[in-house]
Specification:
Elements (H helix, E strand, L loop, with lengths): L2 H19 L7 H18 L8 H16 L8 E5 L7 E3 L4 E5 H5 L4 H16 L2 H12 L1 H5 L3 H18 L3 H17 L5 H13 L8 H5 L4 H15 L7 H12 L1
Parallel strand pairs: 1-3
Antiparallel strand pairs: 2-3
Bound molecules: zinc ion.
Length: 258
């Protein structure tokens, strides 16, 4: 190969690498959706399958559709399924649209405001492309290889990353972002953010308990105390736009707890 040509290729590669460093997206929407669908098969199996229909499914889908309607990311369709698991407390989102809540977590969210917070948080992970960004980063590590990688290999890498995120959790900043936008979506959809404070207070109570049902959820998210503080700040800053007031909510909470 002539030196000029080699140099040109090198420069191109360096430019590509620097663009990736500034957050270029190496994944297409189609591949993101394929990865989510493939990972969904494994998640459904792990939790004992999904519930086919009935009150649980209708409740989750009703809330899910209201949250999806206000969510600004519209290039994917969000699906909401109930994992038929009465032991584990968890909610899961996968790249490209799938959202799951376990039956047990739904039972622990008696009001729709509470469930709307759980759903809002998961929808925000998808809308903010958190898994997609992680998969892109992984592909960028093997930059030269990934340019020539067949799609099936990209899907395989993507599924592995998505399942690792489910096992180990997103970064702290992605979790904060999911809490912020999750609460904004729920308020915009007309749900009272008192639900967020109730769910996080429940997690706080379970923190340090020996209940194995909460282990994964608590391990993969920031401490509930920190999340409560952050969510309170979001309500205080943005609540009035949607007709909610943090002080009034806190007073209502106190009354209900008496
Ligand atoms: Zn999360």
């Amino acid at each position: 190969m002539r030196p000029v040509k080699t140099a040109a290729i090198l420069v191109t590669l360096i430019l590509c690498a620097s663009e990736i460093a500034f957050g270029i997206d190496l994944l297409t929407r189609e591949l993101e959706i394929r990865i989510g669908k493939q990972a969904a098969i494994e998640v459904e199996q792990e939790y004992g399958g999904v519930i086919a229909g009935g009150a649980y499914v209708e409740r989750l889908q009703h809330i899910g559709s209201k949250i999806a309607a206000v969510c600004p990311r519209k290039d994917v369709s969000y699906t909401f399924k109930v994992l038929n698991n009465e032991k584990l407390v968890n909610a899961i989102s996968l790249p490209g649209g799938p959202v799951y809540v376990t039956k047990r977590l739904m039972d622990l969210c008696p009001t729709d405001d509470e469930l709307a917070y759980v759903v809002g948080h998961e929808v925000a992970h998808i809308a903010m492309k958190h898994a997609r960004k992680q998969i892109s980063e992984r592909l960028a590590l093997g930059l030269v290889g990934s340019i020539f990688m067949p799609e099936s290999d990209i899907v395989r890498v993507g599924v592995a990353v998505a399942l690792t995120l489910h096992e180990r959790g997103y970064s702290r900043s992605h979790e904060r972002e999911a809490d912020k936008y999750g609460v904004l979506y729920m308020m915009q959809a007309g749900y009272n953010p008192i639900g967020a404070l109730k769910v996080l207070s429940m997690f706080l109570k379970m923190e340090g308990s020996k209940d194995g049902a909460f282990i994964r959820l608590l391990r993969t998210h920031p401490h509930p105390k920190e999340r409560l503080k952050h969510v309170r700040a979001v309500i205080s800053q943005h609540g009035s736009k949607y007709g909610f007031n943090l002080q009034a909510i806190e007073e209502q909470l106190k009354k209900e707890q008496q």
